[in-house]
Write a structure and sequence with these properties.
alpha/beta, 8-stranded parallel beta barrel, 12% strand, globular
């Protein structure tokens, strides 16, 4: 089995997106990065993604993002598959991808380009140029609904392309991708919108999902994964009902709460998460209270840091 096929198989699980802890001066707490990665590995995560959106990728400098990749690789020490987030312009993404390879990352996740004038043809070239110039298994983050799914089929001809983090919550559209992607293409379809959408995506053909919840409550995320893998959808939706409020809180303000809910929940559990960087603000009192009440409902003992 070559490394690309093996990577595709490895991705059929939870992709845990790490957080980037910042101190009060908004500098990275590197001991907190170590703690976070070790926590995920101890809880059974086999795929860890530094520099994802939940890592506040776009608030990091290039040098910080590189250091976060290296730090994660060093801490993981081959106990988990490290899928390093890369992006920005093509040249920078290639530079980051090759840096990730040099420091020992196992694969790259290519962020959807942030550009006001993106086209399907341009997005294909963007992903293709990065994949062709970084000799690592590559996952693309597909989240712009205006971009054609055809680029997935075109890229699937490249053996380095091993997965799609699909984050357009249009289930009939995703189903068409899953049904029409040739089975001999070693591309794993990943629900890119976490636990809230995972049961729906799995019913249509996904084999993995991303998660920020794993930083707070990994046991519940794994319960959902195992029920989905066994196709016990009745149980899956019972678990879903238990955690959907958390995902709803993250989705508030056009997903503006995505990261800060996780960070403040971690802090309530005495885990090192720190604060967020601009342009993400702290939680308002209502959302903070709801988060604390949900953690208590789940049975956690809320601890106050001194």
């Amino acid at each position: 089995m070559n490394k690309y096929i093996e990577a595709s198989e490895t991705l059929k699980t939870i992709s845990g997106i790490t957080i980037t802890p910042f101190d009060k001066n908004r500098e990275i707490i590197w001991d907190g990065v170590t703690e976070n990665v070790n926590y995920l590995i101890e809880k059974g995560l086999k795929v860890i993604v530094p520099c994802g959106n939940t890592s506040e990728f776009y608030s990091l400098t290039i040098s910080e993002a590189k250091e976060e990749i290296k730090h994660t690789v060093d801490v993981a020490d081959k106990k988990a598959f490290v899928l390093a987030g890369v992006g920005y312009d093509v040249k920078t993404a290639i530079e980051m991808g090759n840096y990730a390879k040099d420091v020992g990352a196992d694969g790259i996740m290519i962020h959807m380009p942030v550009h006001p004038y993106i086209t399907s043809g341009g997005a294909k070239e963007y992903f293709e140029n990065i994949i062709n110039n970084v000799d690592l298994p590559a996952v693309i983050y597909f989240k712009d609904p205006h971009i054609s799914d055809d680029i997935i089929f075109d890229l699937a001809k490249n053996e380095r392309f091993v997965g799609v983090k699909y984050a357009v919550n249009d289930l009939p559209r995703f189903t068409r991708v899953a049904v029409n992607l040739p089975k001999n293409d070693n591309v794993t379809l990943i629900c890119g919108t976490a636990e809230k959408w995972a049961p729906y995506y799995f019913s249509a053909g996904a084999e993995g999902f991303t998660s920020g919840l794993v930083n707070v409550y990994p046991e519940k995320a794994f319960e959902l994964l195992h029920s989905l893998q066994s196709k016990d959808f009745k149980k899956s939706f019972e678990i879903w009902n238990n955690i959907v409020k958390f995902e709803d809180l993250r989705a508030k303000y056009n997903n503006g709460n995505n990261v800060v809910i996780i960070k403040e929940a971690m802090e309530m559990l005495n885990l090192t998460a720190g604060i967020t960087r601009e342009p993400v603000s702290s939680l308002n009192d209502t959302d903070r209270t709801e988060t604390e009440e949900l953690l208590k409902f789940w049975g956690f003992d809320i601890k106050k840091r001194s």
